[in-house]
């Protein structure tokens, strides 16, 4: 079955939409397409959360791809999407190598504050996954509302050069497609997981999460080959977490 990955020539720039993920789900828009919006009025977050775009120059992006289901672990894909975004950030902002990480499953943090969220939405039909990748990134701004100033910040400390949003999008597309290709090679998966773990916000942290209706606590070990978070409890039990529960927290 063919892979339908992102194509640079299928991009569109729009002024406003309620949600770029909803916009690109339109059946008339082909796989491989992507969109940048200058404004998003009802951005989606994970679960019932919303994504609030911050700053003067936000990056509001969605892309649509199709992949054979037998080649894909969705938790691993989500983690590799964050890998693609973080590598793109490092390419344009090398200063961020010192303070920017992936917070599992796919948020990007600068220090202890969030700069980006990724929302993966998928549909399984006839052996294929149709996947929408939504990304909201706070590039640059001069102020943050009081209720968010302790938890959110910006990637850049200065305004962006003209055309940088589009340049960022083109490089991100390359990295996102590379991430999908890496998922076909178990050896490459392990190599990339080592890189991801080196930039893991949760590295060596003690966390609590809900598992099968009970709260568990353990130290983060890393990720397995399916993108699950591995933790070791105080009793020495190794536990795999597929996704973060609503009450997931760092202790």
Strand neighbour order, sheet with most strands: 1-2-3-7-6-5-4
Low-confidence runs of at least 5 consecutive residues: none
Structural class: alpha+beta
> Strand count, sense and closure of the main sheet?
7 strands, mixed
Radius of gyration: 18 Å
SSE pattern: EHEEHEEEEHHEEEEE
The share of residues in helices is: 10-25%
- Name the average pLDDT: 91
Overall morphology: globular
Q: List the total number of helices.
A: 4
How much strand? 25-35%
Alpha carbon gap, first and last residue: 45 Å
Number-wise, the strands total 12
Q: Would you summarize the structure shown here?
A:
The protein is an alpha+beta fold and 251 residues long. It is 22% helix and 31% strand. The protein is built from 4 helices and 12 strands.
What does this structure look like?
The mean pLDDT is 91. 37% of the residues are buried. The chain is 22% helix and 31% strand. The strands form 2 sheets. The protein has a 7-stranded mixed β-sheet. It is globular and about 55 Å long. The chain is built from 4 helices and 12 strands; from the N terminus they run βαββαββββααβββββ. It has helices at residues 20-24, 74-92, 164-182, 186-198; strands at 11-14, 34-37, 58-68, 100-103, 107-110, 113-125, 128-138, 206-211, 214-223, 229-233, 238-241, 249-250. Helix 2 (74-92) runs antiparallel to helix 3. With 251 residues, the chain is of the alpha+beta class. The N and C termini lie far apart (45 Å).
């Amino acid at each position: 079955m063919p892979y339908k990955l992102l194509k640079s020539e299928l991009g569109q720039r729009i002024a406003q939409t309620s949600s770029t993920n909803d916009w690109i789900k339109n059946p008339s828009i082909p796989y491989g397409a992507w969109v940048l919006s200058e404004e998003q009025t009802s951005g989606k977050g994970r679960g019932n959360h919303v994504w609030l775009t911050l700053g003067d120059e936000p990056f509001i992006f969605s892309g649509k791809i199709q992949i054979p289901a037998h080649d894909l672990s969705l938790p691993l894909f989500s983690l590799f999407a964050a890998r693609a975004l973080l590598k793109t950030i490092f390419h344009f902002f090398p200063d961020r190598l010192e303070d920017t990480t992936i917070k599992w499953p796919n948020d990007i943090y600068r220090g202890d504050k969030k700069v980006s969220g990724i929302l993966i939405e998928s549909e399984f039909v006839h052996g294929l996954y149709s996947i929408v990748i939504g990304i909201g990134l706070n590039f640059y701004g001069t102020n943050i509302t009081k209720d968010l100033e302790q938890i959110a910040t910006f990637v850049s400390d200065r305004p962006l050069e003209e055309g940088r949003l589009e340049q960022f999008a083109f490089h991100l597309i390359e990295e996102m497609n590379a991430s999908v290709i890496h998922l076909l090679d178990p050896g490459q998966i392990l190599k990339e997981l080592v890189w991801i773990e080196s930039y893991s916000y949760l590295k060596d942290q003690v966390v609590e999460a809900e598992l099968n209706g009970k709260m568990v606590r353990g130290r983060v070990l890393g990720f397995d080959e399916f993108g699950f978070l591995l933790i070791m409890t105080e009793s020495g039990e190794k536990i795999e977490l597929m996704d973060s529960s609503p009450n997931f927290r760092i202790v």
